[in-house]
Structure formats: C-alpha cells, structure tokens
Amino acid sequence: MMFSGQTNSNTLRKFNWRWHEDSTLTAGLLKDVAPEIELSGYGRIPSPGSESPSGLLNGESLNVEPIADLDLFFERLYSYYCEKGLWCIIIKWIVELLSLGFTICFSGFFLLYVDWNGLRNAKCGMDAVESGTKPCDLAKEALHEHPLTPLTLSKAIIVGYLGLFSIYLVFCFFRFFSQLKETLRIRQFYHNSLHVTDKEIQTMPWATVLEKIVQLQASQQLCVVKDLSAHDMVMRLMRKENYLIGMLNKGVLAFPISQWVPGAGPTVKFGPDGTQYRLVLTKTLEWTLNWCILQSMFDRNFCVRMDFLSNPKTLKKRLMVVGLAMLLLSPFLVIFMLVYLFLRHAEQFYNHPGTASSRRWSNLSRWMFREFNEVDHLFKHRINSSIVHASEYLKQFPSPIISIVAKFISFVSGGFAAVLLIIALVEESLLEGHIFGRNLFWYAAVFGTITAISRAAVTDDLLVLDPEGTMAVVVQHTHYMPKRWRCKEHTETVRIEFETLFQVVSLFAV
C-alpha cells in the first residue's frame, strides 16, 4: 500500500508461511495481490540471529526462558514506556474509571429521570413573572419521581444498558488491581535492571530503551534461545499487529458493501458481476478480529496452532457466536457511543462551532498506512503530522456554489449577531426581552453558531490550488499512494476515495 511499486522480497517471505492448503484463511492471505493494493515497503533490518516470521510455526521453547511469556513481557515494557511511568498509569486508570462512571450516571439521569415534556413547558424567569405563576422548581416539574413507571421497551433497554456497563465498571475496577501488580514488576525492572527512572522515561527515546535491553541481554539472559536484537523485540511487539496489517494488504477484509455504509473504505477489487469490494475495519470489527483470530491463533510456544489452520469450522463458529453477541449488545453499545461522543465533543463544539465538520483519519486508514514492525507511538507521530496536510488537500476542491451561499448566510447571521452584541453593550437587560416566544439570549447563541459554521465553509480567497503538490506532502507522512491515484490527484474520483479514509469526526469513532 505504499507508493513503491516493487514488493520487497522480505515482505513476501513474511506471508510465505507453511500453512495447510485446506485452510481458507491461508488461501485468502497467500493469493495474488489485487492490482489496486500495494504492499508496504518493509525493509528488514539485518541482525545476527534475528528471528524470521517463518519461525512462528517452529515455536520457541518456554522451558529454558527465564521469563515465561517474553512476548507479554515486552508488551508490558512498551506499554509502560508509552504511558510514561507508574503514577501516570495509575492516574490514567483512575480517570478512566471516573469517566466511565460519570458517563453511566449522566446517561441514566438524563434518559430516565428527566421529564423532557415538563422541562419544555416549565415557566422560569421572566416567563414566570409574565404568566403570574410562581418561579419554577425544576426538581418537581422536570424530574420523574418514579422513572421506571410505566416500564416501556425503551426504558427496559436503557436499564439493560445501565446494568451492563455498571458490571463492566466493576470489572474494570478489579482489573485495575490485578494489573497494578504486574505494573509494579515492570517498574522494578526499569529501575533495577535498566536503571531508568519514571522521570527519564518521559523524555527518553524508545530506541534508547531497546539499546539498554540489548545490553542487558548480554549479562542477564532474558531469552536463552538466542541473543535478542532491537529488531527481534520489535517483531515480538508487533507479532499480532503485523497479521492485521497483512490482512489489509492482501484485501482479506474487503466485502461487497455500498459506499454509504459507515466505515466503508476504498474499493480494492471487483467481483465477476461487477460488484465492488470495499475494505472495512471499524473499531468494533477490529476488536472482534483481535479476539476471534489474533488472540487464539498462537499457542503457549508462540507458534501458530495447527488446529487453527486445519480446522476453519472452529473459527467460523467463533465468529458466528461473537457476531450474534454483538448483535444482541448493539442497542446498548449505540446508546453508550452516542452519550460518549456527546460528552467528548460538546465542549469543543460549544467553543469552536466550526469544528463540526472537522475530519480525522478513520480506523481503517490507520491500519492501511501502518507499516510492518512500526510501533504505535512512532506511527501516531507520523500520522498525526499528516492531518493538517490532508485537510489542505480537501480544500483543493472548493465548491463555488457552497462558498457563495455560505458567504450570504454568514453575512446575514453575522449582522444579527452584531446587533445583539450592540444591544448587550447598551443595556444587558434588553437581552431578556422576547421575540416570537424566545429571548434574545437564545437568538444570540443561534446566530453565533450559524455564523461560525458558515464561515468554515467559505473558501479562502488566498488559497492556491495545487492538488498534486498537496497530495505529495500528504504522502510523505502517510506513505500511501495507490497506482490508481497517480497523475489523477485533481480528479473527483480520487477526492471521493480520499474522503473514505479521511472522515468526519463523528464517523471516526465508529
């Protein structure tokens, strides 16, 4: 999936494993690559005795290793490094628990206890004075005394959602203490074996940590089978991620779906009847594949289990069971995702309404752009640097009609907002006056929001149109340039396909 047309021989060797011919998963991964998909240019770093992915089938002895699960050990080392020390990890866990608990309580209160009809009809402030009624008591007029009476289907779903995620909260609470013990061991290893403090971790490059581990390997055999190099440790960290990257490179996750389906990516192949097969990898699908395939394909000796390759029916059954479970849980997950997105973006939208149309790289694109053996924090640094340039590329396709209409809307709404601002400066109490049943505060908020959103849609008059040059800058960071895009950066086809990867924020969390 790189702009390099030639496939590195080491990349092909990574997937040329000795799998059984009757495995459907093997056949899917080893078939010829479609012309639309270009493999990432993966150059292997030469190192003495470095392991080959083909060795996954041969296994590694656990009986002679001082550390029982070396893969898990390196994963914890890397996780400790990325989270920058013990107290950062503890505070992060506490904040995550509090955030989850707040989300559950917030959604339960507003979905069950708040009487929205009573809240809409309540008379407060000047409305209460004008109507001659007593000032409203929202606790009595806008809250249900018995929120579960009557118990409807929608309320039952909400109660199920609250109960399910409350159980998940308790599970996360106990998992915190179970993981704390292992985290303390990793901290001790950093301090006593690598002589690296938590303060140093916050600024120390990852390459320096790997160098210290390699030096430690010479005196303290972490792995007695062979001498570990930095490349060997990175391969262990990325063992499962490399499989997922390979599945996308080979087009295994391409399905016959329409472009309007949320999370649908670019078309990578066509069926015999002309059906378009598009890549899909949402957050939920990624978790499902990780649990059903990546977490169960290795045995205790770190090699691919033979029964996993020779018995595809087991994998099919596991996928069907998880799919059915996700279908049953989907109503509760949708409620949680909507509440979480609201809490996450409400403040940002309130202070910066123009960000309503902001975009981010989708979950699919992040795995498409990621290279073999590229650890997470380095990939994030590379991909986050491309967001500004990706936004600039989409600005290379201005719509004159939308820009003209947006300028007019901004002109009108901005005029009303300016008048309301002048009124506030002259006499603030005038904003409590009503027009068509709404006070001027309400109109000020509406016109201000409309003005900010419409201005974001107006094309910059100083914009220099150069789709080819802008795309070249984007490619420098993403390392993604399909053959079908070359010399067509200015076309609408490339723009539409680019937007399937660089999606609106609301779709980014799917």
TrEMBL record:
The lineage of its organism: Eukaryota, Viridiplantae, Streptophyta, Embryophyta, Tracheophyta. It is found in: Preautophagosomal structure membrane. PANTHER family: APG9 AUTOPHAGY 9, AUTOPHAGY-RELATED PROTEIN 9. It is a multi-pass membrane protein. It comes from the Eukaryota. The chain crosses the membrane at residues 86-113, 156-177, 319-343, 401-427, 439-458. It holds the Pfam family ATG9. Belongs to the ATG9 family. GO terms for biological process: autophagy of mitochondrion; lipid transport; piecemeal microautophagy of the nucleus; protein localization to phagophore assembly site; reticulophagy. Keywords: Autophagy, Lipid transport, Membrane, Transmembrane, Transmembrane helix, Transport. The keyword Zinc-finger does not apply. Phospholipid scramblase involved in autophagy. Cycles between the preautophagosomal structure/phagophore assembly site (PAS) and the cytoplasmic vesicle pool and supplies membrane for the growing autophagosome. Lipid scramblase activity plays a key role in preautophagosomal structure/phagophore assembly by distributing the phospholipids that arrive through ATG2 from the cytoplasmic to the luminal leaflet of the bilayer, thereby driving autophagosomal membrane expansion. This is Autophagy-related protein 9. InterPro entries: Autophagy-rel_prot_9.
